[in-house]
Amino acid sequence: MAGDWQPDFGELIDEHQSMVFSLALRMTGDYGLAEEIAQDVFLELDRHLCKMESPLHALCWLRRVAMSRSADALRRRRVRGINQWVEIDETHGARVEDRPSPLADQLERLLATLPEAQRAALVLRYQEDLTPEEIAALLGSPLATVKSHLQRGLKLLRTKAAIHLKEYVRGA
Amino acid sequence: MDLAPMDDFERELRVAFVRRPAPPDLKGKIVGRRWQRASRSHRRMIWLERIAASLILAAVAGGAAFWRHESEKRRAEDAKQQVMTALRIAGDALDEVNAQLTDRDQDAQ
Question: A121: domain range?
Fold first, then answer.
């Protein structure tokens, strides 16, 4: 029975830290900020631990809160007027072995240039492998809007990749 | 967008957007901050308990002082009543002696 599930905080961190951190990183493009967001998300989970009904519930809750915290962080950064481009280049906090392959790194950089709503839809679609319906439910947006963000985002990313990744291949 | 088969680019995206490993000390930091929060909350609770205990002690001490004051006031009232009764008795006795002396003086005349 779902109600009988006893969540273990440590296990939940072990299991989902990579997912929460990756969502925050791809939404903000800032390694340090993503780590901070991941900490905040798990501390919030700790406060709501007794309300978690099942592992799936915890997973969905973590995804939703990670996305919403990332959006809050981006909003705060916009208000403070910090230049996103400078921040996105900042990956000095990451260990060398944790850095993505050059192609993945390029795609992440291109992803970071997309509008926030399109970026959110693409990250949830291709990182978390969610369907548009699941993304709509998670973000609380109409399905048509999510589909539109996915389509436009993918088109834009494809166009940018066609330009920038060619340069990358030539430069390699 | 329907869930049509992914093209090469989408497959590339899925590979590129694989989950990245979290920083190795992330769990430690979360557990540390959780402990700090619990400790802060514990300290706050101790302070609240101390304040509550101080308020109770102050109320008990105040009550005791009030009770002692009232008790002394009552005893003083009793003593005053006793003195008044004694004065009334003495006054009555003096009146009686005075009346007898007046009678004796009139008889002597």
Answer: 100-172
